[in-house]
Amino acid sequence: MENINELIIPAARKGEIEVLKELILRKADLDFTDEKGYTPLIIACYNNQMEAARLLIEAGAKIDAADQGGNTALMGAAFKGYKDIAKLLIDSGASLDLKHGNGGTALMFAAMFGRNEVLALLIGRGADPTLTDHRGQTAMDYAALQGNEMGSEIIGRAMGA
């Protein structure tokens, strides 16, 4: 018999809703991890599979589960610039200020990669722009380093500058 847990990550990646529903009914592990520590929710969010992400969250997937590098689904959505996925995660209780292995946050990812809609969403929902990573860099520093003037402006307004 095939291990049903090994089917859930590919289904999440592709957004195969009917397969996910069947796996959930069969009690597949919603927080099963692959060799990199990715969970079905992390994979669904990173691949912009909104309905798969919603289904996994509603079924009880751990919203703040992290991969081996400490990256969460919210960090992946911020990195990719998926505002709707980020909003779903935040509305579902994702922690805004978790840090990955190098101390980076979802806000830093958004600032670094010019994902300004996600950056504004995170700031608006209370992400802390003063947090620093292991090198002492803030989201504002990353926005400036990347020439992300709009991001710097969004963060500056939030900090009262």
TrEMBL record:
SMART domains per record: ANK
Lineage: Bacteria, Pseudomonadati, Bacteroidota, Sphingobacteriia, Sphingobacteriales
Entry keyword set: ANK repeat, Repeat
InterPro entries associated with the record: Ankyrin_rpt, Ankyrin_rpt-contain_sf
Top-level division of the source organism's lineage: Bacteria
Ranges: ANK repeats: 36-68, 69-101, 102-134
The protein, known as: Ankyrin
Organism: Pedobacter kyungheensis
Pfam family, one: Ank_2
SUPFAM superfamilies: Ankyrin repeat
